[in-house]
């Protein structure tokens, strides 16, 4: 007992002489020659309670104090099949050269933030010899990790004994900053919840680097350099799938479909590829078909505990109730684009509230911003949002939300006054129309397609328009709405005619005309007749065209339709142009122009000005007027957003420009014509493309006949596909002229003979006469060549080949040159395909 008391007294004496530093108290005691380290928790109380009975505390004695292990290499495992993100990785690595202390990597769940941060950390590890650490900031079931617990773990990794870790968050943060102050440490903080969680974990010096990944945009983290990740590009997505699935690169179409069904989201691609890698009997094509047909696509994108649905669930459950509600409602939107108007309609909330919720979802990476104020849901997030709505919302609530969205777009279409407004919402309206078709909402489908008709015409969205108008016509027939069906057929016929499908267009117009007649709608019948007349013109049936246009004109006048009368007059003017009656054509176009201007119809006025310009170009003494008219029509077409009209006016303007002329914006003739050709090709207007190619060939005939043959042949092929005999004949005539210029008289003769056959079929006496003269001259040239060739052969036979005998080709060239210049101006004056 006495010994035990003496030892306690010695301990107390040792404690009196111990040193105290902040939270840490250490005492080294030598009792009977044994070195002991007294635990701070054993001695803190006695120190604080000086003068109290110290004998109630005991010290534990041991041998030399253990040295805690140091962790210097604490990064997560790098992926051996890390693929893609080359651009983002380079930006991240270049950014570290500027010595930032914090780089944030944010993006939607499953986009590959952790993989990129880990891969980058391994590449950078050599620059941070004092420690590389990886910390997950998510606890169980997606809850946020406590930064105090994270700091305790980090401090222990740096070698701080557990008994020396301060109890408070502030104390631990101070010790962490102190211990990293003289070191170069790389820290990866994965899946951070917010800046409050991150701030205490950041080292205080610039020699350290912290990479933070987060599902949220960490806007409040001062001084951080942000890097946002989106879905993978198609090539990188396919490469990732091929590498993880361990399949050959063949079957690229199936791979492309799979990664698209995965939304090009890295987590989804890795999980899908992993499933295929463990199913060696499946081909890539079979796997793609199974994924395409799956009712539960998200359920297919899973591998053990890792699932795309769970990744989304963590983000969704972290939203406030209002954010969750808006996310579910946006999943019901059929279209790809979301703005405040769509969100307000979907949620049935005021616009300011909708704007706040959109911003919150954007910050949480549950929406992507495609343009200022415009957002979209990732494809898989859209699937997830619809799942949630079906699970958590009533059927009546969902129906009401969809009805509000559709009503929003119908109202927008009624109020749209400019092409730009319609252009901004076109994809949404089309998606709503397709949704209405899939759900058999026939009245909605008919209204939405009717709303899009004029815009699709002017923008040249003809292939999609053909599908939509066909569906609208069928829907109207099911509803028994004859007027709506006939209107849809008129639009469909116009699209088919614009695409060069003249046979289909004729049948469609005839169906529309029959419906209008049955309904007693003379105005509708006149519209169908006028359009039938234009198809007749394009296919060379000028007599049929005249009957149709005159009948349409009479009906329009009978019902007092000024716009229709002007359209019919414009078409009759075109007919007169084709017949070479330029004065009569100009009279018709002038009358149409006056009517369109009286009605303030800007598009109609532009059409009339374009056609009037072509009419005047065929009359002597009007040379300045056509160019000015084309410039005016070009300006009007741009104003109303009519791309086909812009192409027509641009081509007309280029045709009336000289080699040294410039437009007001400094473009030369070729640049203006190139714009027309580009628009025609973009629209799919084969007729416009063929006309411009024919014109390009005409320009090259005299300067470079070899180069002229290519455009002429392309034009001839297009005209042949369209069944446009007049256009094909002009192109063949151009080919003949080119070969004639090259002195290839045999090929020239063949082309002219094919053109002559077409002109005779068209009963075009003037063209027949011109081509026959060409053929007569070619025959004379061939005869001259044969005579010269025969003379040379006879001289050679007699051994006199050394005599200077003119080359037969030179003889023919001299003969041709005498006649060519005399005919050129006469020919060029009439050489144009009349539109």
Judged by helices, strands and strand pairing, the structural class is alpha/beta
Strand content: 5-15%
Quantity of strands, as a count: 14
Shape category = elongated
Question: Explain this structure to me?
Answer:
- Helix content is 65%, strand content 6%.
- It is elongated and about 110 Å long.
- The protein is built from 37 helices and 14 strands.
- Helix 26 packs parallel to helix 28 (602-617).
- The longest helix is centred in the C-terminal third of the chain and has 33 residues, at 765-797.
- The protein has 835 residues and is an alpha/beta fold.
- Strands 5-7-8-9-6-10 form a 6-stranded parallel sheet. A two-stranded antiparallel ribbon has the order 1-2. It has a two-stranded antiparallel sheet with strand order 3-4.
- The model is unreliable at 1-61, 800-806 and 824-835 (pLDDT under 50).
Keywords:
835 residues; alpha/beta; 6-stranded parallel sheet; two-stranded antiparallel sheet; 37 helices; 65% helix; elongated; disordered C terminus
């Amino acid at each position: 007992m006495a010994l035990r008391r003496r030892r306690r007294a010695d301990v107390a004496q040792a404690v009196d002489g111990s040193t105290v530093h902040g939270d840490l108290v250490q005492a080294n005691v030598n009792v009977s020659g044994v070195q002991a380290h007294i635990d701070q928790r054993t001695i803190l109380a006695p120190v604080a309670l000086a003068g109290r009975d110290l004998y109630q505390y005991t010290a534990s004695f041991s041998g030399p104090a253990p040295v805690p292990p140091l962790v210097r290499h604490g990064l997560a495992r790098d992926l051996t099949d890390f693929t893609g993100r080359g651009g983002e990785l380079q930006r991240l690595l270049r950014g570290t050269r500027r010595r930032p202390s914090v780089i944030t990597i944010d993006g939607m769940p499953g986009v590959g933030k952790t993989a990129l941060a880990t891969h980058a950390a391994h590449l950078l590890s050599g620059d941070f010899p004092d420690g590389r650490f990886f910390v997950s900031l998510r606890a169980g079931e997606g809850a946020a990790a406590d930064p105090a617990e994270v700091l305790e773990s980090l401090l222990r990794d740096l070698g701080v004994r557990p008994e020396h870790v301060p109890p408070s968050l502030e104390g631990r943060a101070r010790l962490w900053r102190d211990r990293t102050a003289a070191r170069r440490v790389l820290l990866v903080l994965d899946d951070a919840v917010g800046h409050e969680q991150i701030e205490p974990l950041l080292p205080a010096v610039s020699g350290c680097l912290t990479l933070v990944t987060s599902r949220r945009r960490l806007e409040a983290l001062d001084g951080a350099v942000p890097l946002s990740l989106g879905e993978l590009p198609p090539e990188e997505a396919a490469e990732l799938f091929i590498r993880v699935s361990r399949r050959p690169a063949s079957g690229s179409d199936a791979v492309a479909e799979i990664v698209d069904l995965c939304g090009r989201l890295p987590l989804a691609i890795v999980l899908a590829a992993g499933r295929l890698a463990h199913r060696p009997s499946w081909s890539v094509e079979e796997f793609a078909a199974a994924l395409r047909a799956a009712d539960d696509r998200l359920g297919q994108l899973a591998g053990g505990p890792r699932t795309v649905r769970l990744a989304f669930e963590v983000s969704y459950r972290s939203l406030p109730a209002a954010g969750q509600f808006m996310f579910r409602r946006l999943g019901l939107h059929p279209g790809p684009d979301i703005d405040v108007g769509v969100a307000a309609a979907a949620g049935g909330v005021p616009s300011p509230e909708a704007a706040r919720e959109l911003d919150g979802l954007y910050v949480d990476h549950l929406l992507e911003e495609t343009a200022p104020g415009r957002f979209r849901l990732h494809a898989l997030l859209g699937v997830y949002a619809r799942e949630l709505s079906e699970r958590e919302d009533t059927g009546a609530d969902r129906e009401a939300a969809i009805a509000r969205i559709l009503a929003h777009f119908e109202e927008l279409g009624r109020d749209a006054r400019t092409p730009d407004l319609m252009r901004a919402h076109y994809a949404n309206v089309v998606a709503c129309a397709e949704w209405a078709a899939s759900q058999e909402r026939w009245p909605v489908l008919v209204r939405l397609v009717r709303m899009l008709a004029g815009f699709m015409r002017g923008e040249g969205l003809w292939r999609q328009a053909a599908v939509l108008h066909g569906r609208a016509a069928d829907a109207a027939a099911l509803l028994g709405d004859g007027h709506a069906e006939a209107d849809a057929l008129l639009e469909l016929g116009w699209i088919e005619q614009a695409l060069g499908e003249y046979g289909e267009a004729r049948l469609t117009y005839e169906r529309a005309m029959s419906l209008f007649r049955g309904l007693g709608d003379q105005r509708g019948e006149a519209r169908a007749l006028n359009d039938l007349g234009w198809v007749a013109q394009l296919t060379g049936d000028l007599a049929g065209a005249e009957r149709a246009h005159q009948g349409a004109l009479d009906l329009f006048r009978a019902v007092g339709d000024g716009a229709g009368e002007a359209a019919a007059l414009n078409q009759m003017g075109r007919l007169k142009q084709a017949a070479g009656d330029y004065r009569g054509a100009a009279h018709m176009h002038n009358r149409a122009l006056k009517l369109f201007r009286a009605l303030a119809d800007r598009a109609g006025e532009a059409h009339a000005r374009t056609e009037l310009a072509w009419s005047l170009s065929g009359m002597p003494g009007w040379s300045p007027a056509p160019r000015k008219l084309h410039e005016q029509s070009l300006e009007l077409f741009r104003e109303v957003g009519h791309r086909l009209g812009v192409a027509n006016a641009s081509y007309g303007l280029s045709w009336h420009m000289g080699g040294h002329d410039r437009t007001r914006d400094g473009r030369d003739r070729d640049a203006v014509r190139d714009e027309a050709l580009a628009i025609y090709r973009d629209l799919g207007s084969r007729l416009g493309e063929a006309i411009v190619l024919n014109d390009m060939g005409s320009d090259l005939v005299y300067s470079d006949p070899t180069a002229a043959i290519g455009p002429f042949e392309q034009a001839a092929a297009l005209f042949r596909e369209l069944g446009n005999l007049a256009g094909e004949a002009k192109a063949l005539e151009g080919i003949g002229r080119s070969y004639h210029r090259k002195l290839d008289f045999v090929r020239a003769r063949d082309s002219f003979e094919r053109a002559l056959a077409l002109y005779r079929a068209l009963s075009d006496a003037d063209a027949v006469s011109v081509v026959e003269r060409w053929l007569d001259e070619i025959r004379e040239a061939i005869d001259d060549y044969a005579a010269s060739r025969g003379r040379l052969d006879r001289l050679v036979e007699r051994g006199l080949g050394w005599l200077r005998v003119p080359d037969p080709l030179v003889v023919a060239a001299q003969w041709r040159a005498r006649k060519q210049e005399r005919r050129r101006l006469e020919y060029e004056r009439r050489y144009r395909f009349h539109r």
